[in-house]
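R.M. (postdoc): so does anyone remember the format we settled on? I'll just put the structure tokens first.
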């Protein structure tokens, strides 16, 4: 009996299986916690899921068509002034390839990295906007003192291209933190206006009125989407209308070439061999294209009639070669890009990422509309480039980076496709 008392109690098969099951469940739970922690750690830097294919397809289509039209529009001017018909095309193609790679890499990053770079980018941008006022290269032959380009080896870049994106991040950060206070005049008007004026003031000192207006419009669009009361916009619109009326009636109030461009817009016979030359030939090109166009590569106005057709007035060559049909399809692509961007912004779970997307697609939309209005002589010649089409390496690279940001955010919101 004593020996039996010293034996360990026997467990039933059911009890043994239950303990084994509990052990396995505990092991799985610990493993699940470790896996979850690892996923959280990795997802902080990398976005999961698929991005918006419609937005991506529209971006690639615009880049591709832009490269084709850049070559078609630029080769006579490139041969005449650079001795190489492929001069502009080769450089733009290089930036396009790098830009697409950057876009794909950025699209895989978690959008939270934007909050990490927001403040450092703001200080770097302000520094570059100040630096370019003292260290720059003049790429214009009109004799005006433009301070827009910083030379970097064989290339140049415009800090204003970086400033557009930096303003978007800065305003997105501010508005998302003060969203409930945006209906008040201090938080909804005064503070954002000060931020916008700092950017606009520095860019205006570069003698870059067109970009100043563009940055101002981007800021206004973000304020509107951020919750600023519509009554303030009505008051602001009245002030702008009065100021515009005064400037149009008295162009001399603007310094240098800016006043002359207003005069050239209001007086169609003003300086036909000078300030009106590019605009007049742009209208000739658009009119020559008709409904179907004269055919890809068959433009006549690009043969040194439209000055530097690879830049701001490339859309006139598009209209001449591809006609009304081709120009409409390209505008439709820009419309799809903007529409898909708005859809992505609507599905965002937080205000910050939503405002970032709105700011980026608003920049592309406003810049596109302004360029077309200039080319058709609807507004004065302000020198605004057409996104994805006009020659400019840093501009294209920044656009691709921004498109990557939108694609990154679209992964998180899991937008529906067509």
């Amino acid at each position: 009996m004593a020996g039996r008392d010293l034996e360990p109690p026997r467990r039933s098969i059911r009890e043994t299986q239950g303990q084994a099951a509990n052990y396995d469940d505990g092991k799985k739970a610990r493993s699940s916690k470790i896996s979850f922690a690892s996923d959280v750690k990795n997802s902080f830097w990398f976005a999961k899921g698929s991005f918006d294919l419609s937005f991506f397809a529209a971006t690639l289509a615009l880049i591709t068509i832009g490269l084709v039209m850049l070559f078609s529009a630029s080769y006579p001017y490139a041969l005449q002034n650079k001795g190489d018909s492929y001069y502009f095309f080769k450089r733009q193609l290089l930036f396009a390839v790098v830009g697409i790679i950057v876009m794909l890499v950025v699209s895989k990053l978690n959008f939270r990295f934007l909050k990490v770079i927001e403040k450092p980018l703001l200080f770097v941008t302000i520094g570059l906007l100040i630096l370019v006022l003292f260290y720059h290269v003049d790429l214009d032959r009109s004799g005006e003192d433009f301070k827009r380009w910083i030379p970097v080896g064989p290339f140049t870049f415009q800090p204003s291209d970086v400033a557009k994106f930096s303003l978007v991040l800065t305003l997105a950060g501010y508005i998302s933190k003060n969203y409930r206070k945006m209906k008040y005049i201090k938080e909804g008007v005064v503070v954002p206006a000060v931020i916008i004026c700092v950017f606009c003031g520095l860019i205006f000192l570069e003698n870059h009125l067109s970009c100043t207006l563009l940055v101002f419009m981007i800021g206004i669009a973000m304020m509107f989407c951020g919750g600023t009361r519509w009554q303030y916009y009505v008051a602001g619109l009245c002030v702008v209308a009065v100021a515009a009326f005064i400037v149009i009636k008295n162009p001399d109030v603007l310094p240098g070439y800016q006043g002359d461009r207003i005069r050239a817009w209001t007086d169609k016979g003003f300086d036909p061999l000078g300030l009106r030359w590019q605009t007049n030939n742009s209208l000739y090109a658009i009119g020559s294209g008709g409904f179907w166009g004269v055919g890809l590569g068959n433009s006549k106005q690009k043969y040194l009639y439209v000055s530097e057709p690879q830049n701001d007035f490339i859309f006139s060559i598009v209209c001449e070669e591809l006609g009304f049909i081709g120009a409409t399809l390209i505008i439709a692509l820009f419309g799809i890009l903007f529409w898909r961007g708005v859809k992505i912004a609507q599905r965002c779970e937080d205000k910050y990422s939503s405002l970032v997307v709105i700011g980026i697609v608003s920049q592309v939309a406003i810049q596109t509309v302004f360029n077309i209005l200039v080319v058709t002589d609807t507004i004065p010649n302000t020198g605004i480039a057409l996104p994805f089409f006009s020659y400019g390496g840093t501009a294209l690279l920044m656009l691709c980076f921004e498109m990557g940001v939108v694609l990154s955010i679209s992964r998180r919101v899991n937008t529906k496709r067509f």
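R.M.: ...and that's the designed sequence above, right after the tokens. Also worth knowing: The two ends are 81 Å apart (CA to CA). The first strand starts at residue 150 and ends at 152.
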